[in-house]
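Input/output pair, single chain:
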Amino acid sequence: MAIIMDKQFKIGVAREIISPKLGTLLQGYPRKRPASKIYDNLTVSAIAFSNGDICGLMISAEVLQIPAQTVDAIKEFISNQTGVDKLNISFSATHTHSGPSLESMAGWGEANNEYLEEILIPQTIKASKKALENMIPAVMGVSTTESLAGVNRREYNAKGGVSLGQNPFGVSDKTLTVVAFKDLEGKPILNIVHYGCHPTSAGSAWYVTRDWPGVMIDSLEKHTGATTVFFNGAEGDVGPRVTNGRTGGDSNLETGESTMMDMIEVGSLAALDATRAYKQIKEYREVDFKIIKGKVSLPYKPLLSVEEVNARLVELGDPENLHDASIREYASLMEVLKIHQEKAEVEKALEYEQTLFVLNSTIFVPFPFEMFSSIALRLRKFSPFENTLCVCLTNGSYSYLPGEEDLVRGGYEVNMFRGGVYKLKDDTDWTIVKENLRIMSEGLDNK
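Output:
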């Protein structure tokens, strides 16, 4: 399709349903959960931006996560169908733990390629085309508020260990941001809500659901009349503040049934906060839209030696008795042995193309990780932009990204960070902050 633009800022949004068939295995927990009910429909939303010179798409899909190679293929399809430069497309997963599997993980299930090819890809292309066709001139307002819907989930025990729970003393990014757009006559068009918190309040119910963000989205849409799209922030160490004292809602592990009250409670709290932020917007301005591009490079540690791998395999013990992160670590160790045996070329760094969307003093910064809150807070502190919104699991999913200070305590997220074939250096948190600041600075200098 041809894209016809003038020099005025325009925006368009479209949404399509991407719910899987009943019986589809849901991803987010190691136990098998066949979808028994569509509690609320999963959707994919596409937002098109244009300033007359450039055009970009920000996409939010209500799924758990998607590997970088798959996202790249999806963006290629969209680019071929719409004419939008692939590097001007940003694709995010909201990280609901109640959607279909799109990534093969040892111990966690296989990617559902049928769902990918028959539902997610065609519906994403459809939404992208509609968003581009729907673009109209618009103005923008933005506001922030504090939300306690999320809480640090790395709970300490008396022995100094870390488990998934609620840690009221831990770091979390409490800032909830609403970016709202209206047409030139004052009619609401779109709300973007940004906040960092795991969508796990539905627990391990066998229901397809957007989790707590869905409750928030529906409420703000009812209040404003505008399509509302959620982008998840630094949720790596943050879970929903469920009243049971955990960060996962209650459900029957045998039948998968749930009242979903935990999800409704958290979503309602977030809805109140989002509505408050929206009402605080007093001024809507013309939009200066830019796209800043660069490349992020994150060095790897040296690959484990054969001796180190074998020693760790002995420590892990019988692979039949492993679970959760240990299964993934075992699979990674076997891949390392394969690299040594085949004398394959060893990768030195994780490198990926970075695309930053700038709207006045607001910038969206993609992270292909579940990054910890401290990383987002540091980047915001040093960023030249007033509203620096880090978006998790965007353009890929390379597991968790803890702060270096969290590594000493271990725990599930740290084990996942350290469990890959190639292990990022301990100070990757600072490296990724500096890399994004460099790209911002170079982009502003070039303007």
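The CA atoms of residues 242 and 262 lie 6 Å apart. The longest helix spans residues 113-133.
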